[in-house]
Specification:
Order of helices and strands: EHEEHEHEHHEHEHEHEHEHEHEHEHHH
Pfam families: Glyco_transf_4, Glycos_transf_1
Number of helices: 15
Strand order of the largest sheet: 3-2-1-4-5-6-7
Shape: elongated
GO molecular function, one term: glycosyltransferase activity
Distance between the termini: 32 Å
InterPro entries: Glyco_trans_1 (IPR001296), Glyco_trans_4-like_N (IPR028098), Glycosyltransferase_grp1 (IPR050194), Thiol_BshA (IPR023881)
CATH class of the largest domain: Alpha Beta
GO biological process, one term: bacillithiol biosynthetic process
Number of strands: 13
CATH superfamily of the largest domain: Glycogen Phosphorylase B
Largest sheet: 7 strands, parallel
Number of domains: 2
Protein name: N-acetyl-alpha-D-glucosaminyl L-malate synthase BshA
CATH topology of the largest domain: Rossmann fold
C-alpha cells in the first residue's frame, strides 16, 4: 500500500506513534509518505520506502495575521496523492487533520479520485480540545466523515462516544513499543555518573504541560529523597519547566534533580532508572510509561484515562488518584523495599509491555486499512452518517 501519514511532528505521544507506525509499515514493504510542516522528531534522514513532504504554511503572504496551515495542508495532501498515487491517508488527531483530510478528499472526488482516510484519536483532541464547545461540531463532523476511526485505548473510545454524537464504529488499536529500541541495556557506567553513591534513580518524561503535573513529580521526589538517597531525571521541555526549576530550588533539591530537556535517545536514560513517575491529570494511554516498562522500569502513576490499561496496580507498579503525592511516594518506597521487590516489579513491567509489541499492533493496522479500502471501493461520494 501507498499510505500518507499526517501528524504533529513533535515529541508528544501522537507524533511518536505516527512516526514509529510509519517506519514499521515501511519495513514491511509499504510506501509511506509523511506530510507535515516539519520533519517528525523520530524520523531519521533516510529510510527505505519512506518519503517526507514539507507543508508550506504560506506565512509570507502579507494578508494573513496567522498562517492558514489547514488550507496549505489540504493542498499538499491533494498534490501528494495525485503525484505519488497514494491509496490511503492516515491522519492523527481529529482537529485539524481529519477535517483537512475531508477537504482534500472532496477536492480529489471533484477530480475523479476517491482516497479514503483513517483518523486516529490520541486524546488531546477529545479530552482537552474537545471539551471546548466551540470545537465540538468540527470534531464530530470530522470523525463521522472519516472512512475509519481508531482510538489508542478503550478509555479514549469511551470518552469519545460519551462526549460526541459519533455514528461511526471506533476500533481500538493500542499504542505500541519497538523492542529493537526500547530495552534495558547495560548502562552501569552511565548510572555511576548520575548516582555515584548508588542512589535510587527516578525518572519522568513529558512535554511539561500543566496536565502532566510535573510539580507533583518533584513533591513526590522530595518525600522519597528525605527517606532514601535518590536522584530525579526530568526529560522534556514545555511551559511548566521554569516553574518546576524554581520549585526544585525552593525545596533545596537542585543537586539531586537534573533537567535534561528534550532527548532523542530517551531509552538510554530509561535503562538506568528504577521507577518512572507519571502523575498526570489526563492520559489517553500513557506511551511514556509503556516505554519505561519495556526498559524494565516499574511505574507509579495516576489512575486516569487509559493508564490502568497499561500500568497494572500492584503488579507493574502502582496507580493512585490525581494529586495523591503522599500515596505515590509511599508506593515508590514499597518498590524500593528490597532489591528482590524491585526486581519482581521490573519483570512484571517487561511482561506487560510485551503485550504492546509493535509486531503485534502493525498487523492490526494493516488489516484495518484493507477493510477501509475494500469498503471505499463500493462507497458513493462519502460515508453516510446514520445519526
Amino acid at each position: 500500500m501507498k499510505i500518507g501519514v499526517v501528524c504533529y511532528p513533535t515529541y508528544g505521544g501522537s507524533g511518536v506513534l505516527a512516526t514509529e507506525l510509519g517506519l514499521g509499515l515501511a519495513r514491511r514493504g509499504h510506501e509511506i509518505h509523511f506530510i507535515t510542516y516539519r520533519r517528525p522528531a523520530r524520523l531519521g534522514f533516510f529510510h527505505e520506502n519512506v518519503f517526507y513532504h514539507e507543508v508550506d504554511s504560506g506565512a509570507d503572504y502579507p494578508l494573513f495575521e496567522f498562517a492558514p496551515y489547514e488550507t496549505s495542508l489540504a493542498s499538499k495532501l491533494v498534490d501528494v496523492v495525485e503525484n505519488y498515487g497514494l491509496d490511503l491517508l492516515h491522519v492523527h488527531y481529529a482537529v485539524p487533520h481529519a477535517a483537512v483530510a475531508y477537504m482534500a478528499r472532496k477536492i480529489l472526488i471533484s477530480r475523479g479520485r476517491y482516497v479514503p482516510f483513517v483518523t486516529t484519536l490520541h486524546g488531546t483532541d477529545i479530552t482537552l480540545v474537545g471539551s471546548n464547545p466551540a470545537f465540538a461540531p468540527t470534531i464530530t463532523f470530522a470523525i463521522n466523515k472519516s472512512d475509519g476511526v481508531t482510538a489508542v485505548s478503550d478509555a479514549l473510545k469511551k470518552a469519545t462516544l460519551d462526549n460526541f454524537e459519533i455514528c461511526r464504529p471506533i476500533q481500538v488499536i493500542y499504542n505500541f513499543i519497538d523492542f529493537e529500541r526500547f530495552k534495558r541495556n547495560n548502562k552501569d557506567h552511565f548510572k555511576q555518573a548520575i548516582a555515584p553513591q548508588g542512589e535510587r534513580i527516578l525518572i519522568h518524561v513529558s512535554n511539561f504541560r500543566p496536565v502532566k503535573r510535573v510539580d507533583d513529580v518533584i513533591y513526590i521526589f522530595k518525600i522519597i529523597n528525605d527517606q532514601t538517597p535518590s536522584k530525579l531525571l526530568l526529560i522534556g521541555d514545555g511551559p511548566e519547566r521554569n516553574k518546576c526549576e524554581d520549585l526544585s530550588r525552593r525545596l533545596g533539591l537542585t543537586k539531586d534533580i537534573r533537567f535534561l530537556g528534550k532527548q532523542d535517545a530517551v531509552e538510554e536514560l530509561l535503562a538506568v532508572a528504577d521507577v518512572f513517575l507519571l502523575p498526570s491529570a489526563s492520559e489517553s494511554f500513557g506511551l511514556a510509561a509503556l516505554e519505561a516498562m519495556a526498559c524494565e522500569v516499574p511505574v507509579v502513576s495516576s489512575n486516569v484515562g487509559g493508564i490502568p490499561e497499561v500500568n497494572i496496580d500492584g503488579v507493574t507498579g502502582f496507580t493512585s488518584g490525581v494529586g495523591m503525592v503522599d500515596k505515590m511516594a509511599e508506593d515508590v518506597m514499597k518498590i524500593f523495599e528490597s532489591d528482590e521487590t524491585l526486581q519482581r516489579f521490573r519483570a512484571a513491567a517487561l511482561k506487560q509491555a510485551e503485550r504492546f509489541d509493535i509486531d503485534r499492533m502493525i498487523p492490526q493496522y494493516e488489516a484495518y486499512y484493507e477493510k477501509v479500502l475494500r469498503a471505499s471501493r463500493s462507497r458513493p461520494e462519502e460515508p453516510v452518517m446514520d445519526c
